[in-house]
Amino acid sequence: MTSTRRHRWLRWPADPATPRFAFGADYNPEQWPRETWPEDIRLMREAGVNIVSLAIFSWARIQPAPGTWDFAWLDEVMDLLHEGGIAVDLATATASPPPWLTTLHPEILPVTRTGETVFPGARQHWRPTSPVFREHALRLAGALAERYAGHPALTAWHVNNELGCHNVYDYSDDAARAFREWLRDRYGTLDALNHAWGTAFWSQRYSGWDQIQPPRLAASHPNPTQQLDFKRFSSDALKDHLRAERDLLAGITPDVPVTTNFMVMGETKGMDYADWAAEVDFVSNDHYVVPGPQALDELSFSAGLTRGIAGGDPWFLMEHSTSAVNWQPVNRAKAPGELARDSLLHVAHGADAVCFFQWRQSAAGAEKYHSAMVPHAGPDSDVFRAVVALGRTLRDDLAPVAGTPNEQAPAAILFDWESWWASEQDSHPSSRLRYRQEALDWYSAFLALGVRADVVPLGTALDGYGLVVAPVLHVVPDAVAKELAAYVEGGGHLVTTYFSGVVDENDHVRLGGYPGPLRELLGLRIEEFAPLLDGERVELDDGATGTLWTDRITVTDPAVEVLASYAGGTFAGRPAATRLPAPGGGSAAYVSTRLGPAGLAPLLGRLLTAAGVAGELPEEARGRVELTVRGAYWFLVNRTDEPVELPGVTGEVLTGALPVPPRGVTVLRR
What we know:
This protein is of the alpha/beta class. The chain folds into 3 domains: about 20-170 and about 240-400, Glycosidases (TIM Barrel, Alpha-Beta Barrel); about 410-610, Class I glutamine amidotransferase (GATase) domain (Rossmann fold, 3-Layer(aba) Sandwich); about 625-670, Immunoglobulin-like (Sandwich), CATH 2.60.40.1180. About 30% of the residues lie in helices and about 15% in strands. The strands form 5 sheets. A 9-stranded parallel beta sheet has the order 5-4-3-2-1-9-8-7-6. The chain has a 7-stranded mixed beta sheet with strand order 11-10-12-13-20-19-18, with helices on both faces. It is globular, with a radius of gyration of 26 Å. It starts with about 20 loop residues before the first strand and ends with a strand.
């Protein structure tokens, strides 16, 4: 997806034409005595830090009371950083309202779907649609912009922080009013809304806009399209706040780029970042490793999706962790080598900035057990030594890589926020379906086979991809169906899965049999879903095991190839996975059950062979080493705890070694 706005990268205060990686962290000097600040600058220089994000949670310090401003401490910190050669990504500080504001204006506090007020005491306790909050937030952002517009350290603006992390869904009266206006803009008339929402069901027909509410706690399942539209609205409401701060900043400092940190990771799904990307000058992302057997796969998947959202432009890794976090059930420290490996895997996928939360590990507060560049143990620690080594690698070894684009992979996974939202709503065939997990499983299968796969948002041009997987593409408007058909007719090879093509953009079921507008393309028809119970499994005749879902498939085109059939159960002998060759040399394949990474890999291997797509690494290294290509540079990421040989792979080693060290990254210029 190409940004509709002009891409602008960091405004470096000196020598802007020299390629470099940004390296640093969130910096929270207000948590520490003033005498700590010069020591911070000295250690930053030792570590190779050249940028920090500043003032993210500083509203109460900057504006201690209504009409009272304290910029003296921030002036001093900005000057110290500039003198130390460190640029500043300056936050608007609007992420967490100060106590005086919520005391004077409790009406800015969010409300849950059950009617409970979200009180102060943590962060992000504000309504995205509150006009009172917006007024105070813009006043603060404007005061910061006016004061630091000409400061030589200022390299970018950081709007708010992790927008929607804790307040994406607000059910307050402010939200209700804004939701109605959003619906007016979308539908125009109540007749159009009533049709889209299917309000003939359960006597829900509206005769006045004021009758419409957010999907608050109801006696049973709220209207599905109302729920889907509220998800769309909630993402748009946060986007509107982003625009408001951005436009104010651009009016005062038009030469300073503006960003905000997305959270492309795990199950963070409330914000449609593919839609937001055009609103920032460069995409930024926060990512934290999700423990489990697919932890490294998920990191790579999220970094790849961030690159897809950024449309191939360089992007900014705003936050990740040097070691343990504080918010998981069990917070494990990273093993030796993982700090650098995790960081460089983001770089491999197009990040031109590597930053952490945070610079100095807090001694108090909710995140005091979250790791940092300078841990509680101080600079005489393995963590800080690893930080210094990473800074040196980025500065001395990899600087030529900065700014280089990623080479398009031979395959892609198509990712769609609306299908994610809609496929996991209530009153569905199964509440166990997890959209992102299915997409991640396919990505893990690509990694196991050693085949590079991009992760791209719906709407991305598919030209040049030999094979495209569209897992659980549940919402398929007519235009999307035509694009997929054109891709296949043009020689592309499409793969989709269970619960795809089922509804249109209004969450209305496509009648005539599943998968709706994809039936002819796939050469099959499904009359009824057959999800599986917890613990229930079904064997396939190729040795794979399916869980979660099955379909009773009827083949409607004699040219369909049955790739695998059910070996037992109700559908024994019926197709489980199919492929229909197209006249133009392409094909469309369907997988009707969840196979998991291990079960998908052999099937995907057959599909890749048919599509003429192969891995680029020696066979013995596939699955053990991930390859990502940026321009002339090969990033080889060891996914194991043992060194990995790469016979036949040569090039100038920029960093790392051959064989690739355990948990290591080797970068070659080829």
